[in-house]
Design brief:
The chain is an alpha+beta fold. It has one domain: Glucose permease domain IIB (Gyrase A, domain 2), CATH 3.30.1360.60. 28% of the residues lie in helices and 27% in strands. The chain contains 3 helices and 5 strands. It has helices spanning 3-13, 42-46, 69-79, and strands at 20-25, 29-34, 53-57, 60-64, 91-94. The protein has a 5-stranded mixed beta sheet with strand order 3-4-2-1-5. This is PTS transporter subunit EIIB. InterPro entries: Glu_permease_IIB (IPR036878), PTrfase_EIIB_Cys (IPR018113), PTS_IIB_1 (IPR001996), PTS_Sugar-Specific_Components (IPR050558).
């Protein structure tokens, strides 16, 4: 699995980094809180190689990627400002769901 390609596609289809208020992960899902949910393209997300399903629940857009979610999250961290202090980037925490 090319997690770099998958996460780039996921980020694009959730509306880009500027649309991500926060992202966390649990055992199988990347859980996004978006600034504008209408910018997410769920059909394109579901068609992305490596994405098992997309679920909207509790104000989150959840991208199910399976047990390899830590690798996907690590790749996402390479292209986003996860947990940094540079202003507009997304804030993230990894942990239990």
């Amino acid at each position: 699995m090319r997690y770099d390609e998958m996460t780039q596609s996921v980020l694009e289809h959730v509306g880009g980094e500027v649309n991500v208020a926060s992202v966390v992960h649990c055992a199988t899902r990347l859980r996004f809180r978006l600034n504008d949910e209408s910018k997410a393209d769920t059909a394109a997300l579901e068609a992305t190689a490596g994405v098992i399903a997309v679920v909207t629940s509790g104000g989150q857009l959840q991208v199910v990627v399976g047990n390899d979610v830590p690798q996907a999250y690590a790749e996402l961290g390479k292209i986003m400002n996860l947990g940094g202090d540079q202003g507009a980037g997304a804030r993230a925490v990894a942990g239990a769901c």
